[in-house]
Structure formats: structure tokens, C-alpha cells
């Protein structure tokens, strides 16, 4: 075996070792259990129900509907969502059911 061949072989072995080490760092770990996550899944209100709340807030507050923006929403129970809105700088809460009936509109 010539010196040149020995150098090529050692470079090849080193490169393969480096690749194997790099690939072993890519092993994925399973995700943490939901209760161990920093965020939990929250079901938000569908866009059409958020829009119904925005229209209800516009009617009750007299604020132009283009200035009313949903801030957040969450499912309260199997048929009810709570939508929080910003009505021209005033925070408002709206309860709406899955049938599209607005149950309440109240300032926060």
C-alpha cells in the first residue's frame, strides 16, 4: 500500500466517521405529552361566528364595524364560544352559539 493510498483511506475513514456522528445528532425525540407543553390546544371560534359578534358589537356600541377587530376567542362549551373584540379601543366580550345566535355583548 502506497503512502498516497494510505492517506486517501484515512481521509475516507475520517469523513465517514464525521458523517455518522453528524447523522446521529439528527435523531428526533418524541414530542412531550400535552400536559407538559407550554401551550395547550384551544379551539377558537370559526370566522363566521367572530364576524357575527363584530356586527353585534357594532350595533350595540355605535362603533363603525370596520373599527372592530376580534382579539381572541375560545370554546366555552360544546355549543358556545366567547369572542373578545376591540371596538375602537374599548374591549368587549361576546358570547355566540354554534347556531349563530349572539347570546350577550358586554364591555370588559
Structural class: alpha+beta
Instruction: Note poorly predicted spans.
Output: none
**Global outline:** elongated
Query: Which sheet architecture does the biggest sheet show?
Result: 4 strands, antiparallel
Order of helices and strands: HHEEEE
How many helices?
Answer: 2
Q: Into which percentage range does the β-strand content fall?
A: 25-35%
Question: How far is it from the N-terminal to the C-terminal residue, by CA?
Answer: 84 Å
- Please compute the radius of gyration using only Cα atoms: 29 Å
Helix content: 25-40%
**Strand arrangement in the largest pleated sheet:** 1-2-3-4
Number of strands: 4
Average of the residue pLDDT scores: 83
How does this structure look, described?
The chain is α+β, with helices and mostly antiparallel strands. 34% of the residues lie in helices and 30% in strands. The chain is built from two helices and four strands; from the N terminus they run H-H-E-E-E-E. Strands 1-2-3-4 form a four-stranded antiparallel sheet, with helices on one face. Strand 2 and strand 3 form a beta hairpin.
Key attributes of the depicted protein:
108 residues, alpha+beta, 4-stranded antiparallel β-sheet, 30% strand
Layout: helices, strands, pairs:
Layout: H1 3-24, H2 47-61, E1 68-77, E2 80-87, E3 90-97, E4 102-107
Condensed summary:
This protein is of the alpha+beta class and 108 residues long. It has 2 helices and 4 strands.
Amino acid at each position: 500500500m502506497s503512502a498516497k493510498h494510505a492517506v486517501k483511506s484515512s481521509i475516507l475513514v475520517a469523513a465517514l466517521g464525521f458523517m455518522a456522528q453528524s447523522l446521529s445528532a439528527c435523531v428526533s425525540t418524541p414530542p412531550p405529552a400535552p400536559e407538559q407543553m407550554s401551550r395547550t390546544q384551544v379551539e377558537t371560534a370559526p370566522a363566521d361566528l367572530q364576524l357575527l359578534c363584530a356586527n353585534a358589537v357594532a350595533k350595540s356600541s355605535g362603533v363603525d364595524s370596520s373599527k372592530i377587530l376580534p382579539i381572541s376567542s375560545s370554546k366555552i362549551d360544546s355549543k358556545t364560544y366567547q369572542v373578545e373584540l376591540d371596538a375602537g379601543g374599548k374591549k368587549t366580550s361576546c358570547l355566540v352559539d354554534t347556531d349563530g345566535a349572539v347570546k350577550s355583548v358586554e364591555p370588559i
